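Predict structure. Chain length: 217.
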Amino acid sequence: MTWLRQMKGDVRLIGAKSVDELYVWVDAAFGVHNDMKSQTGGVMSFGHGMVHCRSNKQRLNTKSSTEAEVVGTSGYVPFPIWLAMFMYEHGYPLSKNILFQDNESAIKMENNGRDSCTGRSRHIGMRYFFVQDRVDKGEIVIEYRPTKLMIADYITKPLQGKQFELFRYLIMGWKSVGDILTEIRNSAKERVESKNRNVAEKANTEKPKAEKANTGH
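Prediction complete.
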């Protein structure tokens, strides 16, 4: 309570790196309620502070964290879509409308719809795949980012230490979102480079074995 009283007068800052670039973070905490329903959290920013934050309990039960992420995304996507339309009508069309998630399976389902569904996920109604339609129309782009850079975690689950402090500073506008976007880009680059190294190492390991098998030794 002492800490809450101390932060009562904290000033929230909202600004923009660019009014044509909107960044969105969406996350879901799987099965955290007594009835095993999940919690969705979403935030939006133009680069400095959050212009919108929302945390709500999902209305249906899901069978996995991936399904919870899909349901959460479908529930939050209307907000950045509406904001994009609002900005367009005021003469500021968006050049970027990017939604970040930390679940790659969920991203595949949202980008490809039924084509990426397994038998276990087909029970989710088609209404939750309208995200794919928005992606196909170019209204929003969904990209991966690691959990440690998921700002929406702040409003879906209890955090501690440096991560809590970082996300609080970003949401309150005391730290530029541009800083974490740089970390996201660097993280993505590192993931690609690491994957390429692993592929190369595997190829180098298997090549001598193949050559040996061909020589009959």
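Summary: The chain has a mean pLDDT of 86.
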